[in-house]
């Protein structure tokens, strides 16, 4: 049985572990180490999870038979009314079952409770399969950027929202 739950402060360590396990292969493929790039997502800390939550990020956890298998977080910029999806993570052995899309859809539904005009996210530009995945969910490339603190290009993608406020997203 699948169950979505709002994450609480006490879930920070659990979320951190899901994210670290989920992004470990990316770090290996990119040749990134925690010594050189401690802020890369694969080296997440419970303190950073907690800090984002304290700054207003909402986190959702996905459970399969009471086992946490994925997470996603989002935030809303109330000045621009843009939603941002962050840290989508599904434990590797549970991938390929649509759980990432379920988490994304759930976060999008929660964002549509706000008057957002678009939802944005960012990915490592060289991961073409990930780009195609998000394009299949309706996201389009907005821009790409290089940051001095990262050894790769970051792709920013967005999905325009056309007033489709759902008003019925429920959390357990």
Automatic annotation (TrEMBL):
Residues 2-162 form the N-acetyltransferase domain. SUPFAM superfamilies: Acyl-CoA N-acyltransferases (Nat) (SSF55729). Pfam families: Acetyltransf_1 (PF00583). Keywords: Transferase. InterPro entries: Acyl_CoA_acyltransferase, GNAT_dom. One of its GO terms (molecular function) is acyltransferase activity, transferring groups other than amino-acyl groups. This is GCN5-related N-acetyltransferase. It comes from Desulforamulus ruminis (strain ATCC 23193 / DSM 2154 / NCIMB 8452 / DL) (Desulfotomaculum ruminis).
